[in-house]
Amino acid sequence: MQSIITAENIGKQYRIGTQAAAYSTLRESLMNAVFSLPKKSYARRENDLIWALHHVNFEIKMGEVVGVIGRNGAGKSTLLRILSRVTEPTEGRVVLRGRVGSLLEVGTGFHPELTGRENIFLNGSILGMTRADIRKRFDEIVAFAEVEQFIDTPVKRFSSGMYLRLAFAVAAHLEPEILLVDEVLAVGDVAFQKKCLGKMGAVAREGRTVLFVSHHLQSIKTLCERTILIDSGCIHCDGPTDQSLETYKHLTRQPKVFTNQSLKDRQNRTSGAVRFTSVAGIAPEGNETWDFEMGSSIRLRFGYEVFSDVSSLGFYIALRSTLTNELLTSFKDIASNAPLRAGESSILTVEIPGNYLRPGDYSLYVCLADKNFERFFDVVDENVDLPWLRIYSDERDPHKTQGYFSMRARLMPGEHVN
Known about the structure:
By secondary structure, this protein is of the alpha/beta class. It contains eight helices and 19 strands.
């Protein structure tokens, strides 16, 4: 079978301290030209350049569903941007044999001033579809996205969840031969994530090709038979998903040492009205740590800053296992019923009882939203380079340490049976 995607010796080089080239409006270009200040000229230095990708080679057949995993900064998103023709490789070439639908970030390809309806037709036209073909799928797209009431509203007024649902629905339903999906589903709720995974599975069963970048390894395991592991810009492993996941587990086994971790310098994938600025693990003795003895209580302290006025603030936290990202436990509460003003900052502290978690390594998923969790302000998950929350124990009895939770059950008095 002929390959539908071929990557031949792909490399992408960036200069440290500069932004990747991106499309801009005429207004932005004129403003930059008028108000930009003269900059001091520096000689080009070799150590100013980094390779985000280097010597990447692979082939993907029609109908394959391939996962792409790796640590933050490994080059996963850069690879998908090259495959989507958003950016050009520094070296090598990519051969694509089919139309490409891509979802690289919330609202990729949408024009904010156009309505949802207009953006559906715009995206379909970009894919080379006729208006008649788009009309046939229009109702299905709108129903999947659950935005019927707002379909004639400019998408700049959509919440982040609505934006994401429509963007995914358009990318998945306009029948591209190749569907490229980056880690964006974390913005949606659990029900929508399952809905998207189901749709990607249906796309694959129709014989189309899916390339899925995600830190949500359980989704990779469920959806993909083959997975490519990228590390430091190179392919570390390319094979059956179970093999790649096990290799990834060993690759990330040694945690970094963190105390109070700054969350300021990172890409925001939501509205950004309120943002986390720091997170720290606090031991019962009061010192900062990410290692906790089994049985001790765990406190997590989150700093946040308000960038735009909001009417309320909701907070959600979940713990996941580091390998499967299976949702283990979650907590949702209202942090503030009162309005918050731009410029304010504060701290949220969560306490997790220590008599429930068994030894193991856990990753954090936390988000800030409005109190109804309809509009997401900020999300911190596996895309952010946080340490693992590690529970340890000297207990030798495996019945007391295996699994995720300690069950506090009580044996009831027995009944006599004749």
